[in-house]
Every structure is written in structure tokens, then in C-alpha cells.
């Protein structure tokens, strides 16, 4: 079977590789010249365990080809970005221009009965919009399906194969064809539904996570006003057999959980009140924590902080929508100097080494719980810095060890050490 994939990013490239490994003839279409040049040299433009080796093999066998132009194929799979519209006011609105541009490319090569699959995370109705767009370009006999992507960066190659997939077509024939396509390389269950339901499933999953994290962050804000520790409150509450509260943190980032709920809000602005408030709570968390820390620092005459970790989550080199950056920006606006270190980013213009960040610091903040920070020996760190206060909103460090080495640990949702 021939497959044409539009967009060779975090999703499209691993999907192309997995499909090629499964025996499909894959043609990847990528508009970024830089990424195409990288791929032409046989290098993966993204970091993902196992991807480089698998890519090399697929390029060598010729099962994967890359170009700026589409080609004829039985299946066209769209994995382009779905960001927000720029410069909007009010609630963020999805920007489907990349999806429709991929549609323009498909229209140049499509033949009747080709299957078009949209994998980009999209607002409800996006598959229909893509179909109408292509019909407007004279393609009126194509089949359309939506299939959300749920892989975890760091485990993408395994999860692309093992995760269950939800597949929905605009017609029963499209659903059937799409299910058949995914069965080529998915060992998990392939669950059939309608396109509209499949679109909702992805948004429902990530919004569920966002709302639950917002609750944990709000609970921490409430607890910090009382002599309790939110971590203990949550641990004990979770002993209830039907309660599973998540951990609070520095906020929510990344290109999925902090973005996708807005797609639901945009589709039902009158109804989506809880979802909107949860998004705002999570977006407001870094600023709230920065204000709290800045007040404490000023009361002690401190003005220099070291922020360790700016990725949106541990052990990834991705700082899209990172709450740690929002936290650093808020601290800076409150006249605290912040030296930022994150060894997972190579050649980042705003970063310094961990030791350089610590050298001038009066307070240390853990912005992302990378393994490399967890592995720091607090006794060594004590020799690199005068700072003895550590704010650990991500609860990443071994607090007992750091306390024994002479550090005072500040936590979220807790008053200990925060007296100004
Ligand atoms: N990354 C994840 O973990 C993840 C998980 C689930 C869903 N998603 C969703 O998958 C979609 C893609 O995400 P990503 O992380 O792979 O994005 P990405 O930015 O890494 O990759 C998208 C690629 O598409 C290319 N592109 C843009 N327009 C194009 C066009 N018209 N033709 C060909 N190529 C084009 C871009 O140059 C880029 O290389 C998004 O909707 C995202 O929300 C991502």
C-alpha cells in the first residue's frame, strides 16, 4: 500500500518510519527546507529514542522517501500543526490553515476513492471542513477519517504500535478503510466510531487531564493559606477508594494539554465554563508562584535566582508553552534576576550551564524535574553556591537528602519556610 504523509514532525516522522517498517511504501511531504535537508543527509530532525536507527534503515531500503511535493497514494495522512490563531483577543481560537494547506497539496494528486486521514489534533468538525475544502477544489469522491494521536514523547515508536487507536470516518466505508489501514501497523485495538466522535475523544482526554491538574493547583493555593501540607492532604485523600487527586506543580505546558482544551472551548464557548476556568487556573499558576517566591526573596534581601529546567516536563528537550518560562518571566518582572539552566537544550541562546546559574544564586528553583537534576549530589551543590533555599514546585528532589546537606526546601501548598 502507498501512503503519503503531510508533515514530518514529532508525529508524522515516527509514523512514516513505523509504516515503512510495516512494509508500506511511504512518501513524506515536508514544507520545512531545514527538515528536508536534515532528512536528505539521513539525520532525524527530532530527538526520539530509536528513531534515528529506524529512519536510517527505512531510507536505506527506499521504503521511505521525502520531498516537498506530494505524490499519488491510496492513503493521505495529515500530521501538520494546529496552533492558535495569532493576535486573537479573548479565548484562543484554533488555526486550521496548515490542515487546509495540506488539503491543497492532496488535491493536486488525489484520485477517486483515496482515503484522507486527519491526525492533527483538531476542533470538532475539522474533518468535515477538510472534506468541504477538498470538494471545493474539485475532489468529490474521496473518503475521509479522523484518528487522534495519543503517543507519549520518549516512547513514540512503541506507543504508535501498541496504543489502542480510535478511528472515525465521515462514512462507514471511510471508517472501514481507515481501520484496515491502522491494522497494518497497530498491535493495540483499533476502535471504530464516527469522525466527529473521534475528534471529541482526543479533546476529552486532554481536557480531563487539564481540569484535574487545575484542581490540584487550586487546592495547593488554598492549602498554602493554612498550616497544612497539600501533599499530605492529597496522599490521605487518595486513600479513599474512589479518589485519585493529581499532584500540584508549576503549571501546565506542552503543545497538547495546555492547548487542546481551548479547541473544546472554541466549539462551545457558552457551555465550556469549567474547562475555560481550569485553563486559566493552570496558566495563572506560574505567575502566582512567582509572586509568592518574589515576596519571600525581597523580604530576605535576595534578588538572584537559579532556575533549573525549562522544558515543559521532565527529560524532554521541548519548551513549548513551558510553565517554567512563564515563571521565569514573571519573576523577572518582579525584579528578580533569573539565571536559567537546562542541559537538555543544546545551543539555546538564553541558557547557561547549571554551575554558572548556581554561582550567583541566592535561591534555587527546580523548573523541570529532569533526571540530571535529581542525580545532583546536594553536598556538591552546596560547594557551588551560597544559596541554601530551594523551591521545588515539581517535587523532584529528595527533600530529606537536600535538608541533611543544609538546604531549606520550599514546597507548593505548604507554609513551612515561607514566613516572610
Ligand atoms: N507531538 C506530540 O506529542 C503530539 C501528540 C498528539 C497529537 N499531536 C498533534 O499532532 C499534530 C502535529 O504535531 P507535531 O508535534 O508533529 O508538530 P510538529 O510541528 O513537530 O510537526 C509538524 C510538521 O508539519 C510541517 N508542515 C506544516 N505544514 C505543512 C504542509 N502543508 N505540508 C507538509 N508539511 C507541513 C511542519 O514543517 C512540521 O515539520 C498537531 O496537531 C499536534 O497537536 C502531537
Describe this structure in a few short sentences.
By secondary structure, this protein is of the alpha/beta class. It has 16 helices and 13 strands. Helix 10 packs across helix 11.
Notes on the structure:
The protein is an alpha/beta fold and 420 residues long. It contains 16 helices and 13 strands. Strand 12, helix 16 and strand 13 form a beta-alpha-beta unit. Helix 1 crosses helix 3. The relative contact order is 0.09. The structure holds nicotinamide-adenine-dinucleotide.
Could you name the key traits of this structure?
420 residues; alpha/beta; Rossmann fold; 2 domains; five-stranded parallel beta sheet; 16 helices; 42% helix; 13% strand; binds nicotinamide-adenine-dinucleotide
For the record, the CATH class of the largest domain is Alpha Beta
Helix fraction, binned, reads 40-55%
Tell me the β content: 5-15%
What's the arrangement of strands in the largest beta sheet? 3-2-1-4-5-6-7-8
User: What letter string, H or E per element, gives the SSE order?
Assistant: EHEHHEEHEHEHEHEHHHHEHEHEHHEHE
The helix count comes to: 16
Structural class: alpha/beta
Bound molecules: nicotinamide-adenine-dinucleotide
Radius of gyration: 24 Å
How many structurally independent domains?
Answer: 2
CATH topology of the largest domain: Rossmann fold
Q: Characterize the largest beta sheet: strand count, sense, and whether it forms a barrel.
A: 8 strands, mixed
Amino acid at each position: 500500500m502507498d501512503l503519503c504523509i503531510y508533515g514530518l514532525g514529532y508525529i508524522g516522522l515516527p509514523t512514516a518510519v513505523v509504516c515503512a517498517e510495516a512494509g508500506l511504501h511511504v512518501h513524506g511531504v515536508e514544507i520545512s527546507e531545514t527538515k528536508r535537508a536534515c532528512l536528505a543527509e539521513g539525520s532525524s530532525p527530532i530527538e526520539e529514542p530509536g528513531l534515528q536507527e529506524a529512519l536510517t534503515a527505512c531510507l536505506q531500503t527506499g521504503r521511505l522517501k521525502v520531498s516537498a511535493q506530494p505524490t499519488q497514494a491510496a492513503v493521505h495522512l495529515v500530521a501538520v500543526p494546529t496552533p492558535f490563531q495569532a493576535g486573537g483577543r479573548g479565548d484562543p481560537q484554533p488555526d486550521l490553515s496548515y490542515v487546509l494547506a495540506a488539503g491543497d497539496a492532496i488535491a493536486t494528486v488525489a484520485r477517486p476513492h483515496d482515503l484522507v486521514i486527519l491526525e492533527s489534533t483538531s476542533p470538532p468538525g475539522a474533518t468535515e471542513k477538510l472534506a468541504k475544502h477538498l470538494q471545493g477544489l474539485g475532489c468529490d469522491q474521496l473518503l475521509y477519517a479522523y484518528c487522534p494521536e495519543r503517543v507519549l514523547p520518549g516512547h513514540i515508536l512503541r506507543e504508535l504500535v501498541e496504543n489502542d487507536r480510535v478511528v472515525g470516518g465521515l462514512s462507514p466505508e471511510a471508517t472501514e478503510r481507515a481501520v484496515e489501514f491502522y491494522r497494518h501497523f497497530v498491535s493495540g485495538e483499533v476502535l471504530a466510531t464516527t469522525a466527529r466522535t473521534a475528534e471529541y475523544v482526543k479533546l476529552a482526554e486532554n481536557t480531563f487531564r487539564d481540569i484535574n491538574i487545575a484542581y490540584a493547583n487550586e487546592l495547593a493555593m488554598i492549602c498554602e493559606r493554612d498550616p497544612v501540607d497539600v501533599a499530605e492532604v492529597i496522599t490521605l485523600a487518595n486513600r479513599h477508594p474512589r479518589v485519585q487527586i493529581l499532584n500540584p506543580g508549576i503549571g501546565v505546558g506542552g503543545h497538547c494539554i495546555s492547548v487542546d482544551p481551548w479547541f473544546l472551548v472554541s466549539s462551545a464557548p457558552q457551555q465550556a465554563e469549567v474547562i475555560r476556568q481550569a485553563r486559566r487556573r493552570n496558566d495563572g499558576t506560574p505567575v502566582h508562584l512567582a509572586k509568592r517566591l518574589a515576596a519571600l526573596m525581597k523580604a530576605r534581601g535576595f534578588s538572584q535566582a537559579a532556575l533549573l529546567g525549562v522544558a515543559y516536563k521532565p527529560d524532554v528537550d521541548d519548551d513549548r508553552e513551558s510553565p517554567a518560562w512563564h515563571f521565569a518571566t514573571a519573576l523577572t518582572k518582579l525584579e528578580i534576576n533569573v539565571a536559567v539552566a537546562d542541559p537538555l537544550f543544546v545551543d539555546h541562546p538564553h541558557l547557561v550551564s547549571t554551575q554558572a546559574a548556581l554561582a550567583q544564586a541566592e535561591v534555587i528553583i527546580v523548573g523541570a524535574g529532569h533526571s540530571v537534576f535529581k542525580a545532583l549530589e546536594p553536598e556538591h551543590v552546596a560547594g557551588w553556591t551560597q544559596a541554601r533555599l530551594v523551591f521545588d514546585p515539581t517535587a523532584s528532589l529528595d527533600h530529606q537528602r537536600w535538608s541533611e546537606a543544609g538546604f531549606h526546601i520550599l514546597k507548593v501548598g505548604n507554609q513551612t519556610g515561607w514566613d516572610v
